[in-house]
Amino acid sequence: PEAGEVLSVLVNGERVLEENRAALHASWSSVSYNIQRLRDNPSCAEDEYDLLFDIGEPGLATQVPFTLSAPSIGGTKPRVAILREQGVNSHVELAVAFSKAGFEAVDVHMSDLFAGRHSLAQFQLLAAAGGFSYGDVLGGGAGWAKSILFSDALREQFAQFFARPDTLSIGVCNGCQMMSQLKPIIPGAAHWPAFTRNGSEQFEARLSLVEVQHNGSPWFVGMAGARLPIAVSHGEGFAAFVNEDALEKAQDTISLRFVDGFGMTTETYPANPNGSPQGITGLSNEDGRVTIMMPHPERVHRNVQLSWRPPSWTAEDSPWMQLFYNARVAFKV
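Given the sequence above, the corresponding structure tokens read:
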């Protein structure tokens, strides 16, 4: 066995137990594993159980090829609409992250748009938050999207916002699911998938590892190649493309992929918690101004929010703040 893979118990200097760590761990986990096989997708249960015996898997291995720094930009603060719907619960974290990056964050409920208290014409950036919109009972953001698409006034308001070349938009988790359904009114988003039930058939709340891809989006300037831990919290995150042609057309606009500890794109559970093809968990539209992602960067924009991080990550901001700083730099006002 590898060094550190044997557990020994000594009593008064006499060895009374010597067992392989993986074997003991597997025995301890066997009841949970068998319940999981019956309750969930058995293939996912087996993949997770098999990891107990993979002593070479490095786990969350990070890579940060950029230096995080706040932009030195004064002047008028761009206004960001922190959009939420009934049940959404991550709007505060989004507001804090954008405020730290130099935006004026405004809480905008969908009812505010319906009633005319706010209009997207008043904003430069739209951020759709996540966290159980409609209690996650209407197809993970699909109900939220239909409230827009089935209203002539709101459909036109959102279409005009997405068409403006001076705006940025981001959808996270339920916001991602919602925006993916708005692709008929988002220029350059025809290749986007819908987001359906996780391959594990369960809600997944984990700290997962993703790699930022080269896709030319202003949201990810300088971040390509970064492998970062990020909070995952969704039941419907499987990227379901309509066909292979759509998947192929999406390649240049993919922003985030799940990777294993070796940095390899993975479809294997639990490193890929929803089973999405090619590890895809974030995309942008063709000009990069609109981006959607299932994981939650706003929930880990501070290092203290991470349930695990490298010991060297001692600063206030985590590398994910670069995403929000990049958005601020894009406006240059």
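Residues 21-39 form the longest helix (19 residues). Try to locate this feature in the token string yourself.
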